[in-house]
What we know:
This protein is α+β, with helices and mostly antiparallel strands and 123 residues long. The chain has 3 helices and 4 strands; from the N terminus they run ααββββα. The chain has a 4-stranded antiparallel sheet with strand order 1-2-3-4, with helices on one face. The protein is flat. The relative contact order is 0.13. The model has no long low-confidence stretch (mean pLDDT 77).
Amino acid sequence: MDLHFEELLNKVTDFIKSEAKTETIVGEPFDLGEFKCVPVIKVGMGFGSGGGEGIEGKSRKGEGAGAGAGIGIQPIGFLVTKGDEISFLEAGKTHGLAAAFEKVPDLIERLVKERNRHEEVVA
């Protein structure tokens, strides 16, 4: 069975070279008011291949091969500059008032549990 692994490996290597480069990881800068922002992402890749052959009876022979690759892209934050100052803002993490509002459901649940527990003790 001739799987052409070297040819397949070359194609995968070319794919990785074209997709996982600095321009992909660190995106194109853009302006937001007086700030210059540069998106930063995380890239993950996977690759797998396999093949096999078999014989049925005395005269039938079969063979097969397959390969696959996948890529995942996730934003992790932004490099932000204003004048001489540079900072990194993480994506997916909330700060300030937005973070407080995200915690409200947990706080309410705790208060209800504590109230119920207190009522059981008193009763």
